Amino acid sequence: MIYLLHHDPELYPEPTRFDPERFGEEASAKRPPFSYMPFSAGSRNCIGQRYAMLEVKTVLVKLLANYQLLPCEASNQLRLKADMTLKPVNDVDSTDPWQDVA
Which residues fall within 8 angstroms of residue 81, CB to CB, at 6 or more apart? Predict the structure, then answer.
């Protein structure tokens, strides 16, 4: 299962910690090929991979340009259930309203 691969502590020390550096060129070169497969790999690779990555970047830029994203004071730790897809076990508690930056 891809979720288990991406959370393997031998490949990704402290897998639940936010660490963008683990995907840098130097760190990626130290890992075996196909140890990170968000869209599968090889001949059966997702045909929408490039579109999905472009869409994620576009949405992220729009969000960061228009909103200030801060952690919610009342938020619970998000717990996930690994099934065919990842599903939240609990609701994310957010009592803080969205606020425009501009």
Answer: 87, 88, 89
- For the segment 61-78, the average pLDDT, to the nearest whole number, is 78
- pTM greater than the 0.85 cutoff: no
74 pLDDT above the threshold of 60 = no
Domain ranges of the chain: 1-37, 47-92
Secondary element (H or E) of residue 81: strand 80-82
Query: Does the annotation flag 46 for ligand binding?
Result: yes
8 A C-beta contact, residue 79 and residue 88: yes
Question: CA-to-CA distance for 14 and 27, rounded, in angstroms?
Answer: 14
